[in-house]
Amino acid sequence: MRSEEKRRFLRVFIALSLLSLFADIVYEGARSIGGAYLNLLGAPALAAGILTLGELLSNVMRLVGGVIAYKAPSGKVYWGLILLGYGLNVFIPLLALTGSWELALLLFFLERLGKGVRAPARDVILSEVTTGFGRGKGFGIHELLDQIGAITGPLLVSTIIFLRGYPAGYREAFWIMWVPTILALLMLLSAMIMYPRPKAVTEVGRRMGRRGLSSRFWIFMAGSMATMLGFLYWGVIAYYGQDAANAGLIAAGEIPIFYLVAMAVDAVIAVPIGILYDKIGSKSITVAPIAALLITPTLFGFSGRTGFYLAAVFWGLAMGVVETVMRAAVADMTTVEVRSLAYGVYSFGFGLSWMIGGTILAFLYQIGYINLMIAFCITAEVVATAIFAALPKAKG
After folding, report:
1. Which of 31, 3, 163, 11 is nearest to 95 (CA)?
2. How far, in Å, are 47, 101, 151, 293, 354 from residue 52 at the CA level?
3. Computed from CA positions of residues 225, 227, 232, 234, in that sequence, does the dihedral angle turn out positive or negative?
4. Angstrom distance (rounded) from CA 227 to CA 238
5. pLDDT tens string for the chain (396 positions)?
6. Threshold 0.85, pTM exceeds
7. How many Cβ atoms sit within 10 Å of the Cβ of residue 280?
């Protein structure tokens, strides 16, 4: 790779990483109190689980976005999908104007649609511009900057709620998200100008469709879906947090702090787990289901804030692996010709599984079957660990 191309790739990588940082301030700040805000608006507990429908919609759109990028490979299509996706972040600040939980759910869903449509094209470009310094390390550094935003968002939200109280603090926290929303779009425009034609456009080869996805990829998919099935969705944790706040066990302003802790752990683990992946490969993926397995036992097994903080640590550890190693693994298991399709297929299965698991777990919480929630999560993660342990080694 020429030194000039390396410098250009590095500039694009930095712009995309800052883009994710600002975008994460917006939607991770919103996610940290999503379940609590629904609770405040009078929604039933099941609504917090239905938030995972937004994740499914997001991942359906990842499949759609991946197929579009695969079928119509051009720089305009790739960047158009990314621009549309990040543009839909504007629905988060508009949550400040909602007066019903149904409308709030709709706005959360619209933001998730945006996250979905942009992801495959963006991840393909990331996989290209990180080739010069290690894909796992590159995705790890990107995730680190991403998580700096994910820490800043909940911290900002928590500060506003502590200062302004609630419900006023919730609405003001959403409204201030206009600032990072605009900064994110500026970073996106700079990346578009520097890298208008991705290699996935200029170096397309023979189109193989699903036949280009190996059996190793499909086994990896099965393990990923089992992981997300038992990975307790944060909206359910936040809803439980609001119940705990109503009971006087914690302060409402602590709910986003718990999420901040999870994001901080995610940030700390991102680069080390990425480097570990570059060294030992897919064996590092098993950290995700093992960490996810411990979320519900600690959340409900310890009283008060102790359980929330412990669960947040394991949640962040699992998410750090999911967002770093698993995304890098998709790129390593596929060729550039089918990579956008692979990211779309992977994300759809990922989101479908998380939606199913999140809805089941929210319903079990609503009817008070806590022990069954714990058993469900442990079973799913044991299965996921076994699948990843049996993942065939890469050829060559």
Report:
1. 31
2. 9, 15, 21, 19, 7
3. negative
4. 20
5. 567 777 888 888 889 889 989 998 998 888 777 777 888 888 887 777 777 777 777 778 878 877 777 776 667 888 888 899 888 888 888 888 887 888 988 888 888 888 888 877 788 788 777 776 666 777 778 878 887 887 888 888 888 888 887 677 888 888 999 999 999 999 999 988 888 777 655 555 544 444 567 788 899 999 999 999 999 988 889 888 888 888 888 887 788 889 889 988 988 888 888 888 878 777 888 999 999 999 999 999 987 889 999 999 999 999 988 888 887 788 778 777 777 788 888 888 888 898 889 889 989 998 989 999 999 999 999 999 999 988 877 654
6. no
7. 10
Chain position carrying tokens 């023979």: 206
